[in-house]
Amino acid sequence: MIVGEEGIHIKDLYYVMMKNQCGNVKKCKTLIKHQKVFVNGQCIVKHDYSIKDNDEIIVDGKRINAHPFVYYMFYKPKGCISASYDKNDLCVMDYIERKDCFCVGRLDKDTTGFLLITNDSFLSKRLLLPQYHIDKKYLVEVDKVLTHDLIDKFEKGIVIDKNVVCQSAILQIIDERYCYITISEGKYHQVKKMFLSCGYVVINLKRVSFAGIELDPFLKEGEYRELNDCELRILEKRILMNQ
Ligand code: URA
Q1: Residues near ligand 1 (Cβ within 6 A)
Q2: Catalytic choice (108, 120, 135, 229)
Q3: Which of 71, 120, 186, 194 counts the highest number of beta carbons within 10 A?
Q4: 100 annotated active-site
């Protein structure tokens, strides 16, 4: 859907139009070509014209939103549920002002760290597809001393749930009980199960990066901020690599 000669950019005019329900790629590009689209009073005929947040965009006589989609980095605290609503516990959407958003994937209730929040279901779906191999990096604290043979085991593929072989994972030992693990799948309780099958209990789990974007060290638990342009480009590239 979002393939172009140079690929998509989240701020391309036709992509912004698509997100405003102006039609599919073909329809939006045709509207642009047929001079039906004006940005700040000027007729635009380039479909990859880059839109800025304050631009006034008129499509076929109607104003559309130049900033229809948001992408937030949320620092999920412990005890918070990765959902829009929960009758007992605080959930992610209790922290987010815009109510049209949702989380891309889930973290366990006791896991902290980076959760991507957006209202862009197209991007979200792709980021969650297993064949897109989106990297997730976690800081892990375990219950006993980590041994170096684990690095090889994780690389070869740990078996969980009796017979499910996980894809290769990168283990970086920091010290006796702390390590980083990078996985590119998102199976239920995956990290905890991988360690458990090697005889370790995960005491603390924190997602420190998602799709190559690092959790902002200035964010506090429960806070969120918009992804910056550089981070958005990283996401776009991850999507494009898999087209
Ligand atoms: N793996 C887990 O076990 N839990 C999480 O929350 C994320 C990855």
Answers
A1: 107-108, 111, 189-192, 205
A2: 108
A3: 194
A4: no
